[in-house]
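Figure 6 in text form: structure in, sequence out.
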């Protein structure tokens, strides 16, 4: 299977899972935090898919993992209904802290007390 085909499948899986995660009723998954599917990696045989989830806000990571594992069967069924694939892959959720880390770095940069008036005065 060509790499571009797997890339397209990964994009489709990410899109569908992003939509369906909003519909999950499990309180462990919907604990006031914002979930984002940042990336998916599907094997060439379409048997397995790593789903990278980024969570912004306060949450219990252990409970979030349990909740995602609990709803993975329903999400897989929804994925099979939405996409016409030879096999619907088993979903393996991996926590990705890249968005939270980026927000933290952005906050640090914004909190810096830099006076730009001195730089403009020196250049004149």
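Output sequence:
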């Amino acid at each position: 299977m060509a790499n571009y085909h797997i890339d397209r499948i990964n994009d489709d899986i990410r899109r569908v899972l992003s939509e369906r995660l909003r519909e999950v009723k499990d309180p462990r998954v919907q604990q006031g935090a914002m979930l984002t599917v940042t990336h998916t990696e599907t094997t060439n045989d379409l048997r397995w898919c790593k789903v990278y989830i980024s969570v912004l806000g306060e949450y219990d990571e252990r409970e979030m993992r349990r909740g995602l594992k609990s709803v993975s069967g329903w999400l897989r069924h929804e994925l099979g209904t939405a996409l016409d694939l030879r096999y619907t892959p088993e979903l393996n959720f991996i926590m990705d802290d890249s968005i939270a880390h980026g927000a933290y770095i952005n906050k640090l940069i914004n909190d810096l007390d830099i006076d730009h008036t001195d730089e403009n005065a020196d250049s004149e």
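Caption detail: The mean pLDDT is 85.
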